[in-house]
């Protein structure tokens, strides 16, 4: 079983790599309830990496209740950057008047950040790609504004949006993090060797 969203590129790609009928996509708790496996003793699940951690947990819990023998990944499937950003949004959402999620409308992890903000008590969450997307009237009366970004949103765009607010308002910036990300991805050996040779 694959927990995910039907038309997301990761889901399409994953399902396209497997023989037809060997994987079933479940998008909702209702899908989990309706699912009837060919053999409940040979059942496993994986998740799309950009989902809401909370929504995924509820679906995994339901799967485990229905199918106690179901196998899952050895570690969390949700991307660490997605998880960390969602946790930070949960901390910020209840204490701000509005929250901007910097990201593309087709970005699953950006959409989930907006949803997490709304579910966590943020009165107004907005997804935008550039400073030019700001509808200033939406921010009238806002005294505390949160800004976060989807995992693939460039930092320069976050700075551009913050700069647009700084041009209109006096900002006092406070950084909220859920965890320090110390993940390092080295270049593959051939690229390191090529770089060293230059």
End-to-end gap: 47 Å
Q: What's the SSE pattern?
A: EHEHEHHEHEEHH
Radius of gyration from the CA trace?
A: 20 Å
Name the helicity range. 25-40%
Beta-strand residue fraction: 5-15%
Strand-pairing-aware structural class? alpha/beta
- What is the spatial order of strands in the main beta sheet? 2-1-3
Using the coordinates shown, work out and report the CATH topology of the largest domain: Cobalt-precorrin-4 Transmethylase, domain 1
CATH superfamily of the largest domain: 4-hydroxy-3-methylbut-2-enyl diphosphate reductase, catalytic domain
Taken from the alpha-carbon principal axes, the silhouette is: globular
CATH class of the largest domain: Alpha Beta
Unreliably modeled segments = none
Q: Number of DSSP helices?
A: 7
Oligomeric state of shown chains:
single chain
Secondary-structure arrangement, i.e. CATH architecture of the largest domain: 3-Layer(aba) Sandwich
What is the count of distinct domains?
2
* Mean pLDDT, all residues: 84
- Total E-strand runs: 6
* Biggest beta-sheet profile: 3 strands, parallel
């Amino acid at each position: 079983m694959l927990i995910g969203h039907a038309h997301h590129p990761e889901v399409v790609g994953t399902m396209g790599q497997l023989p037809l009928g060997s994987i079933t996509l479940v998008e909702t708790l209702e899908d989990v309830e309706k699912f009837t496996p060919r053999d409940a003793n040979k059942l496993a699940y994986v998740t799309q990496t950009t989902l809401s951690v909370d929504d995924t947990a509820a679906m995994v819990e339901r799967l485990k209740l229905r199918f106690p023998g179901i196998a899952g990944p050895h570690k969390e499937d949700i991307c660490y950057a997605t998880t960390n950003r969602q946790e930070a949004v949960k901390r910020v959402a209840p204490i701000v008047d509005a929250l901007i999620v910097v990201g593309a409308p087709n970005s699953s992890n950006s959409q989930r950040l907006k949803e997490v903000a709304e579910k966590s008590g943020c009165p107004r969450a907005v997804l935008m790609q550039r400073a030019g997307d700001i509808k200033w009237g939406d921010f009238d009366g806002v005294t505390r504004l949160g800004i976060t970004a989807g995992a693939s949103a460039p930092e320069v765009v976050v700075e551009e949006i913050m700069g647009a607010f700084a041009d209109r308002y006096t900002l006092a910036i406070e950084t909220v993090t859920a965890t320090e990300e110390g993940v390092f991805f080295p270049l593959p050996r051939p690229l390191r060797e090529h770089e060293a040779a230059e």
